[in-house]
Amino acid sequence: MKKVDAHEKIKNLDKLAEIVAKLKKEGKTIVHCHGVFDLLHPGHIKHFEAAGCEGDVLVVTITEDRYVGKGPGRPVFNERLRAESIAELQCVDYVAINRAPTAVHAIEKLGTDVYVKGSDYADRESDLTGEIYKEEEAVGSVGGRIHFTDEISFSSTELLNIHFGVYHEEADEFLREFRGRYNAEDIIGKLKALKGMRVLIVGDTIIDEYHYCQPMAKAWKETVIVTKYLNRESFAGGVLAAANHVAGFCEDVHLVTCLGEENTQEEFIRNRLKPNVRPKFFYRDEAPTVVKRRYVDPVFLTKIFEICFLNDANLPKAVEADVCEYLSACCRDYDIVIVCDFGNGFIGRLIIDVLCNRAGFLAVNTQTNSANMGFNLVTKYPRADYVCIDEPEIRLATQEKFENLEELVRIVSGKLGCPRVTVTRGNRRSLGFEQDRGFVQTPVLSDEVVDRIGAGDAYLAVTSPCVAAGYPMDIVGFIGNAVGALAVRIVCNRDSVEPVPLFKFITALLK
Predict the structure, then answer these.
(1) Residue 422's closest CA among 464, 368, 465, 483?
(2) Which of 69, 121, 66 is nearest to 97 (CA)?
(3) Quick one: DSSP state of residue 248?
(4) Which partner for 337 in 249, 359, 401, 479 could form a disulfide, CB atoms 3.0-4.6 Å apart?
(5) Are 444 and 427 in contact (CB under 8 A)?
């Protein structure tokens, strides 16, 4: 029998839909499998063979690379290689790459008669994404049915973790040890348990603008590099980004911040906040809402130049008094108060005193930037229950450039009476501390970096409720670095770190 050229089996989805429509007119039953299929293994082959028994023509669609939500480093094999590998199987008739985030589009496009999933999806509640319900509904809408195979199964993720060195050596060593103490269900269960936590988040609003431009050359008569403007993008940054991150994990989030009377951008801000973030805005006159405008080369997101629009003087006394009164009345209503202090003039001494005196559990992050270098130190807070800052910030706070980092953590912990501290360190291990158990270090879990802006805010936002819930710092460090690995793949604050992608990444890490 003449062997069918595997490449002839690979079609774009539109062309495949035409072929399927013709086959259905001929009375053929179309069976459809969908997945990532990153590493083709015997379990997949058995699955396809069993699926083929349900009809006449077996079609396999695979998830496009950009929609493979298993975290950094995945897929290991690109979409073309995955499609070609599956097309080599005799039991598979056609293969297509699905250019949509879920299988629903492909099911509806093909008019699938029988949609086949593995036995692990038969328990629909175990599907982290919940997409199985949507897929089943889509199959029903085109008159088809769903079928679950019961063949031998393997995990592509587990095989890749063991044999393909998906993670760098330091992370791989850490993960092998961490898997011995925790599994994905443990960690995901803890994150889901944060849902009912009531969160008050206080801090500086920042609008991040990226003005994309293309460098051209030096001006003919000036010592200036000229760039060509392309387009622009605006993001809800600062405390807004942190509020959106935490709102994915906690249902009740209340935001307190301050806008400028000049160019408040309030409509933009309200439109960018998640529905479960309830904002309380205060306003200061003779000031704009803070805007950080960066001119960016879009090829590698290289920052060329930055302009800040801000008035970073202390709040007017009347506004500060109103903020203090409001916080005094509401702090006790929340399980945790998270402070995102960017040192842009909103959080002064009186507001700090209210937060420290009224908050039940207080998580604090202070950030150093070009406008407040050496002035916005975490030690201006007399107390905290959790501090999350980066290494340069803790060295500034302790005025120690070269001292052992663990000693600096002990100093800050002692000054603030703070039992839990995290120091993030970019591409090096984060350092976690709790008074009863000492120090833990967690390596970075991905080397893939698109944009570092906003990653620290994501880390703070998701780890703070974890610390408030009493989770040990080895779990906090793991969750924080998983969040960071996802956050650095997001351009500025274009999106939040969401639970489902995080759960899928954690599952991939701990297979």
Answers:
(1) 464
(2) 66
(3) T
(4) 359
(5) yes
- Please state the pTM of the whole predicted model: 0.81
Average pLDDT over residues 374-392: 94
- Which runs of consecutive H residues, i.e. helices, occur in 37-130? 42-52, 79-87, 104-110
DSSP state of 29: P
CA atoms within 13 A on the CB side of 109: 20
Q: Where in the chain is the domain with CATH 3.40.1190.20?
A: 188-204+243-286+311-509
Residue 343 contacts residue 371 (beta carbons within 8 Å): yes
pLDDT band, residue 2 (cuts 50/70/90):
very low
Q: How confident is the model at residue 448 (pLDDT cuts 50, 70, 90)?
A: confident
Report whether 128 contacts 157 (CB < 8 A): no
Distance CA 264, CA 266 (A): 5
The pLDDT tens digits for 171-220 are: 888 998 999 999 999 999 999 999 999 999 999 999 999 999 998 888 88
Structure tokens at 454: 């906003």
* Residue ranges of the chain assigned to CATH 3.40.50.620: 6-163
The CATH number given to 188-204+243-286+311-509 is 3.40.1190.20
What does the DSSP assignment read for 185-212? HHHHHHHHTTTT-EEEEEE-EEEEEEEE
Q: Measured between alpha carbons, how far is 468 from 250 in angstroms, rounded to an integer?
A: 12
Q: Give the SS3 label for residue 78.
A: coil
What's the Rg (C-alpha) of the chain?
Answer: 26
> What is the amino acid identity at position 205?
T
| The domain defined by 6-163 carries CATH number 1.10.10.10 | no
Residue 370 CB partners (closer than 8 Å, separation 6+): 308
Give the single-character DSSP code of 498. P
For residue 200, list its beta bridge partners: 254, 337
